[in-house]
Each structure stands twice: as C-alpha cells, then as structure tokens.
Amino acid sequence: MGALHAGHLSLVEQARSENAIVVVSVFVNPIQFGPGEDFERYPRDAGRDASLMARAGVDSVYHPPVAAMYPPGSSTRVHVAGIGDPLEGAARPGHFEGVATVVSKLFMAVEPDRAYFGQKDAQQVAVIERLAADLDFPVEVRVCPTVREPDGLALSSRNGYLSPAERQAAVSLSAALRLAAEAFASGERRPERLQGILRARLEAEPLARVEYAEVVDPRTFRPPGTLAVLAVRVGSTRLIDNLDLSKGFSG
Amino acid sequence: MGALHAGHLSLVEQARSENAIVVVSVFVNPIQFGPGEDFERYPRDAGRDASLMARAGVDSVYHPPVAAMYPPGSSTRVHVAGIGDPLEGAARPGHFEGVATVVSKLFMAVEPDRAYFGQKDAQQVAVIERLAADLDFPVEVRVCPTVREPDGLALSSRNGYLSPAERQAAVSLSAALRLAAEAFASGERRPERLQGILRARLEAEPLARVEYAEVVDPRTFRPPGTLAVLAVRVGSTRLIDNLDLSKGFSG
C-alpha cells in the first residue's frame, strides 16, 4: 500500500536475491478498509516511494488507479472462509475479503513466480497462502520476518499516526510479546498464563486498549497454539503485532 | 460437466474454428449443487464423453478428481454480487458462487485465450463475463447459441431425467418463448403482457410447475428488458431456457 518503510524494503531485498525481476505493487486498496477506518488519511507519497524503490533496484512498479481496479459495475469478491474469520477477520468485517480480492487481481496482473509478504501481518499471509492454493495461482508465497525499531516496535506505515506519547506507549506490544516468549522459553505452556502475561503488560499501558491478545495455532488462527497475536489501539491508532513464542523474539 | 450432447459439441466446433488448441474440462462440480439437488445422480459417462471429444478433435481433456479440486482445508470462494443474485441465484443459493469458484480454477489451470459457454445458461455466462473482467483473467468469453431438439427443447444433460410424458411436457418452455417472441415481433412491449404470455403457455401444461418466468435486462438480469428467462420444474426435473425476444426464435 505504499508509504514504504524498511519492512517493505526488506521484502524487496529478499525478492531481488531470489529473482531476476522484481515488481512492486503500490495500491491503497479501498475495499479492504471498513467504514470509519483510515482509507482517506492512509499515508500516500508516490514520489518518495518511487525513489526508494529505484534505489532498492525495483524493476517495475504497478501503481493502478482505483477506477482501473474497481471500475463501475465490478462486483466480484474473493472470500477465504475459516482462517480469515477470527481475530482480524472478526475485528474488521470485510477486510480479508478486500485483501483476497485485490491480491487475486495483483497476482493476475503481475503473474509473479514468488510473492513476498511480511510476517507482521501473519493472518493476512495465511489467508493469501490459502487463497493461492485454493485458486491454483502458480505462485510461491514467501514470508519475510517482521522488521522492528530498536525498541521493538514493529514497523508499520500507521506508526506515523502516533503522537510522541503514543509512540512510547506503542512499545508495549513488542514488550508483551517478548515477555510471553521469555515465559515460553522458561517452560510455560498454559494458554491462559501466556495470554495473561500478554494482557498484563498491555493493560499496564494507560494509552493502550487491547482489542485482542491471544495465543493461537499458526495454521488455523484458533487457540491453542504458539503464535501470540495482538491488536491494540494506542490512542486512535490500531496496531497489530505477532510472535511465534516457540521461536522466540529477535530484532 | 460432461454427459456431452450436441450443445457441448457445438462449443467444441466453435472453439476449433477459432483456436489452434482446444481443451475441454469435464468436472461435475459439487459446490455448485445445493443440498437435495442432483449432484449424486447427475449423469456421468467418461468413456462416452472421451470418444465424442476425440471424434470432435479435442486436443486435451481436463478431468480432475473432486479431491484435487477441493482438497481438505480448501475454503476459498469467488462471489459475483449483483448479476448473480436474482433468478438462478435466488432459486439456487450458492450455485453461482460454486460456478464462479470452479471457473476461476479452470481458467487458472488451462489459461485459455478464449472460453466457450452456451447461451442456454444465460445468467451463468453473465456471471462468468463479470468474473473474468473483475479478476482480470486474460480470457475472451465467447457465447454460443442454444442448440435445440427439432421440437424446440433446449439440449441439456438433465433432459435424460424426463419420462416420455415429461419429455412431451418439456416442450412448453421453448413453446412459451416462441409465443412471446412472436408477440414481441408483432409490437408487444408491455412487460406484464409478455410475462403473461410465457406464464399462460407454461401453466397450460399440467406436468410443469413454473419457478420463474420473467423478461429482464440481459446485462443486469433485472426487469425490464428483452431477455425472457424461464425456470420450470417438469415432474421432478428442473429445466431452464431463455430467449432474447428482440432477436426472435430460431432453431
């Protein structure tokens, strides 16, 4: 969706190391935003994005206008049931349908051999893997690690919405994940305890409001499992993060 | 879906005349059948189909098993809103979602330059045209005329379900379309009159039970328009037929 940061550029770097040609799509997709969400104010800076991509060695940028992607009368939607229903799917009705639809169109337009997504949006990646398998897209979905700020905050174009105080409060997500991973490494396996550790750290932060904090199976996104997934509102900004507790925290 | 008849073979013939290579898919698609519909008893005769296709000059047959198309865990569905909602969409909930999903997969597997469908399933064709445009499939959808028996009955693999008495009653569909087309040719444009002509002819047939008989816009499948569309149960067999009244009856 543009507003490129080092997380996006790590995808480009990985793609460049594995492919002859790298295409980046830049498209703020209206149908994956719900009513009242931040479609209008989502950051857009095509000029800055273009120069970052040129420097990163991107061969081609696919930057279609909304009216080309969704002309009048268009009405087809791709829905991934099951894995897309809980968590982000429940919190943002229609979100994954918008994602699955636009990714189908982007796959069709670019016909990539491999497509690169960030682990930051773990459930989105799972939805896209399911979609690619189910609709027989001849694409290999590659997942790249979450890139973090030095204090642990996962990079996100939405971090720019945060006030300085909120920016400080936002570290609570990665801090909670780190604490749960430490408990896991010490042998803690009880789901309610791991969830309790996540919630306690998040709820200690007055500017944060937990939407969900769960430990789920990374294949189904249902409990029980080892993938800690968080959605937290910091001020009016909604942030997500996740960590496979069995793999531990790094970055 | 196999159980090939002369309607299918006319699609092959058209395809052969316009392309170097002709691929036919043969797949009775479980997800486009509703509960209580005829998925189990739908006619299947792969041997006969294969010899008909060989004789018709088909280069390749794609005949996947159900478990390959819908392996355990698969959960993605393609939904075409709007044009797929009324008429067949209302009478058979989930039907067009099943059609749109399997056609997406077939398009992905075969990557055809052109795909051939029969006018007999007019709304299905409209759904597929919408789908192909919306998901950017690089395919040209070609529509071939309905092939009819000498007495007017549109060819359908389901005609084989009819008893001799039902087979006679089934001519009421094409007879109703012909009467409406004659009225249209004589200047009749009042929707309720055209619909009345359709219904009167169908209701004169004791073995027929009308599901819908409407005159709709061929682009939206909503009234008003010039496309007469029928769904009629003859005995326990559900038959459909259609005719653009402005083009008249032939065949």
Pick out its properties.
3-stranded antiparallel β-sheet, 2 domains, globular, alpha/beta, 18% strand, 38% helix, 9 helices, homodimer
Tell me about this structure.
Two copies of one chain form a homodimer. Chain A has nine helices and eight strands. In chain A, helix 2 links the parallel strand 1 and strand 2. The mean pLDDT of chain A is 97. The first copy, chain A, has 251 residues and is of the alpha/beta class. The first copy, chain A, has two domains: 6-144, Rossmann fold (3-Layer(aba) Sandwich); 157-244, Pantoate-beta-alanine ligase, C-terminal domain (Pantoate--beta-alanine Ligase, Chain: A,domain 2). In chain A, the strands form three sheets. In chain A, strands 6-7-8 form a three-stranded antiparallel β-sheet. In chain A, strands 1-2 form a two-stranded parallel ribbon. In chain A, strands 4-5 form a two-stranded parallel sheet. The longest helix of chain A is centred in the middle third of the chain and has 16 residues, at 95-110. Helices cover 38% and strands 18% of the residues of chain A. Chains A and B meet through strand 3, helix 5 and helix 6 of A and strand 3, helix 5 and helix 6 of B.
